[in-house]
Amino acid sequence: MIKNIVFDLNGVLYTHSPASLKKATGSSIRKKAKLFEVLASREWEEYNRGDYEDLDGFLTVYLSTRKGNREELREMLRIFNAESFPYDEELMSFMVDHPEYDYYLLSNTVPDQAESFPKARFYPLMKGIMVSFEERLLKPDPAFYTRFLEKYDLNAEECLFIDDNKKNTAAAEELGFHTIAHKTAASTIRALQKETETWKK
After folding, report:
1. Which of 23, 50, 90, 177 could form a disulfide with 133 if both were Cys (CB 3.0 to 4.6 A apart)?
2. Over the stretch 154-191, which tens digit does the pLDDT of each residue have?
3. Does residue 103 sit in the same domain as residue 189?
4. What pLDDT is attached to residue 83?
5. Do you find a cis peptide bond into 86, omega within 30 degrees of 0?
6. Which domain holds residue 71?
7. How many angstroms separate the Cα of 151 from the Cα of each of 74, 132, 139, 147, 155?
8. How do the residues of the chain divide into helix, strand and coil, expressed in percent and rounded to 5?
């Protein structure tokens, strides 16, 4: 029986939309390309893993081998991390309408994004939150999922994990989690409704 629903954050509870991206980059094609370059970098992955204490530490290492305007990048990433993404309203409504489940967040994220969590609408709905930079682990490393289960004393077989990255859901399945590979809000809600009806039988 499923007792716990575990959400990814970026691309699931927070949606990626052209409007939200525009908040960080404006109408500048150059800024948009630069943001994508930063997010695809090895250093950004390291920042998610907690290798750098803060955004300035990340920028120091990132710009040591690249050209770029430090202040422009700092402001762009600050907005991107803290302000840019709207909520998935359907998933938020599902949590509110189904208090019979315990909800958790398991996310690859950076410190400056996590600073905004206490003000986030999902925050009071979560029984637990585990983020990569604090644990110094990243999905899809099995150790990250195992640490999550151990910290909250959960059984994988009683957890449903929702993520938009198939590598992350595959890793969770190997450990016994039930999973939904998130594509759209509508498809995930249909899968949730189907699964929850199955669990009740």
Report:
1. 50
2. 999 999 999 999 999 999 999 999 999 999 888 998 99
3. yes
4. 60
5. no
6. 18-82
7. 33, 14, 16, 6, 11
8. 55, 15, 30
